[in-house]
């Protein structure tokens, strides 16, 4: 029992819990019948969201069929990097929900939401080269979780003018959660409905906000699941791990994401280790097939990954920051995206893990996909068109690992440049990485404009190639330092220093 539960939520008797459930049932019925505002219920497949959906279902099923006129949208966000066992559990649950709703005449529609292909984890990490997420660069949560659910809710608001978002959030989850929910309570415009700061015209209803963990489980074990799924199996899945909470539906940055929850993304580097998956493997020999995922996650979780990253930011400029090393301030470049070699290595390791899992997983899990064909196609496009890596290494890596050719109709096969030309360019550049990069960018930029009737913008694109790739790493970093010093000197009105640095900057530009 957590300290926050003990201090803020005293133990209630079973009779008191029953009365609370009866009160909530009445409240949900009244909320449902009093207007035409549609319900959107966040369902993750975990204990809190299951209890919430169960409460709503059991309340609405008591209404006569002619009163069940308002649709209840049940939304689940699949990040595409969920724990495979949890993902399978949720998908099967959604199928049960859809079937049971049709059988019982319930106005419930389940929706499985996913991030756009251009915003998936692997497209960001392997395609664009975003480094594995950290607390100071948490690029994953918004793209994978918040955006898909918020996009769905906004569409409902556009169609209906307003929506009521039902969540299984509870104050007992954490002290931070309790404070956040308390602040929103003070802004309520209707009884039990809190405003949603990030989604206009969306009110939040949290029926189990004052429940303790043990009360959630008591409800799930003593009240039958109305869509025919096994709450006992849900309990068993929780018992196979060690932390406290499932990964909730995330609709804002204040909601705890997978980093502090039981069931989250298996690639998550926001925590020290994936305790849930490690516990599953440790507690059940039949789940040892998950080990390749644990191993790959460890390779992603490199604290000092500077050797694998570019010295420039993703847009090609050097950006400096002050770093404290043993009490001494060092001004250094901020590491940028992953280098070509590391992105190719991670792709190979991911495909190898997929092959191994499909070979060792249980029969009903052997069609598991760690990265989709659509994601692979988008990664290939980014490497070819945005990063100008016209050696086109993705199909080669794919065939070497999977033993079959990569089918991609999105990329034309009659390109002017390919692997042979890249090999020749490497030989000509004689291991000069920056020279190779510049030549590749220039050649591929010309290739992209080759068949255009009006080559508008080509000179700007070529100029950009020189701006980002014509200097060596040492020269580019020194130029960034000179610009920084020039700015500081200008702010201090140091005329002589400004003249010297301006001359140095002009000299660099003339070399280009």
3D structure, described in words:
This protein is α/β, with parallel strands linked by helices and 512 residues long. It has a domain at 3-259: Rossmann fold. Helices cover 51% and strands 7% of the residues. It has a six-stranded mixed β-sheet with strand order 3-2-1-4-6-5, with helices on both faces. It is globular and about 80 Å long.
CATH homologous superfamily assignment of the domain at 3-259: HUPs
Structural class: alpha/beta
Give the CATH class of the domain at 3-259.
Answer: Alpha Beta
What's the Cα radius of gyration?
A: 27 Å
Tertiary shape: globular
Mean pLDDT: 86
Topology:
Blueprint (H helix, E strand, L loop, with lengths): L2 H6 L5 H20 L5 E4 L4 H14 L11 E6 L6 H21 L3 E6 L7 H8 L11 H21 L2 E4 L8 H11 L8 E2 L6 E4 L7 H10 L8 H9 L35 H9 L7 H10 L19 E6 L2 E6 L6 H21 L12 H14 L6 H10 L16 H11 L3 H16 L9 H12 L3 H19 L3 H17 L1
């Amino acid at each position: 029992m957590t300290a926050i539960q003990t201090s803020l939520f005293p133990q209630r008797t079973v009779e008191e819990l029953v009365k609370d459930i009866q009160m909530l049932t009445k409240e949900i019925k009244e909320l449902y019948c009093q207007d035409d505002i549609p319900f959107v219920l966040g369902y993750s497949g975990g204990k809190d969201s299951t209890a919430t959906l169960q409460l709503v279902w059991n309340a609405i099923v008591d209404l006569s069929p002619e009163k069940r006129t308002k649709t209840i949208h049940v939304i689940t966000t699949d990040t595409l990097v969920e724990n495979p066992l949890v993902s399978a559990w949720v998908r099967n649950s959604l199928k049960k929900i859809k079937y049971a709703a049709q059988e019982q005449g319930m106005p419930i529609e389940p929706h499985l939401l996913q991030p756009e292909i251009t915003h998936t984890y692997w497209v960001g990490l392997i395609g664009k080269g975003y480094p594995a997420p950290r607390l100071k660069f948490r690029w994953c949560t918004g793209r994978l979780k918040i955006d898909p659910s918020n996009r769905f809710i906004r569409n409902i608001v556009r169609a209906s003018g307003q929506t009521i978002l039902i969540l299984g959030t509870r104050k007992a989850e954490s002290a931070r959660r309790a404070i956040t929910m308390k602040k929103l309570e003070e802004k309520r415009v209707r009884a039990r409905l809190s405003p949603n700061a990030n989604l206009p015209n969306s009110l939040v209803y949290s029926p189990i906000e004052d429940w303790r963990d043990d009360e959630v489980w008591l409800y799930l074990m003593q009240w039958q699941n109305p869509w025919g799924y096994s709450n006992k199996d849900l309990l068993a899945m929780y018992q196979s791990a060690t932390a406290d909470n499932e990964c909730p539906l995330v609709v804002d940055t204040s909601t705890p994401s997978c980093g502090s929850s039981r069931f989250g993304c298996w690639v998550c580097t926001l925590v020290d280790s994936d305790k849930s998956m490690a516990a599953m493997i440790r507690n059940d020999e039949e789940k040892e097939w998950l080990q390749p995922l644990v191993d790959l996650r460890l390779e992603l979780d490199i604290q000092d990954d500077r050797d694998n990253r570019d010295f420039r930011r993703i847009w090609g400029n050097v950006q400096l920051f002050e770093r404290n090393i043993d009490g001494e301030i060092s001004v250094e470049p901020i590491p940028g995206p992953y280098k070509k070699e590391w992105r190719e290595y991670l792709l190979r390791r991911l495909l190898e893990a997929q092959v191994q899992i499909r070979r060792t997983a249980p029969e009903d899990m052997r069609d598991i996909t760690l990265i989709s064909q659509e994601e692979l196609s988008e990664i290939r496009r980014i490497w070819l068109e945005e990063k100008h890596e016209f050696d086109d290494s993705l199909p080669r890596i794919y065939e070497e690992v999977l033993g079959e050719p990569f089918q991609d109709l999105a990329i034309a096969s009659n390109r002017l440049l390919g692997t042979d030309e890249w090999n020749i360019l490497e030989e000509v550049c004689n291991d000069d990485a920056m020279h190779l990069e510049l030549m590749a960018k220039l050649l591929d930029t010309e290739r992209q404009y080759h068949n255009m009737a009006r080559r508008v913008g080509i000179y700007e694109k070529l100029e950009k190639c020189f701006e980002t790739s014509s200097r060596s790493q040492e020269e580019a970093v020194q130029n960034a330092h000179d610009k920084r010093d020039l700015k500081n000197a200008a702010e201090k009105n140091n005329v002589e220093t400004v003249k010297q640095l301006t001359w140095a900057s002009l000299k660099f530009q003339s070399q280009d």
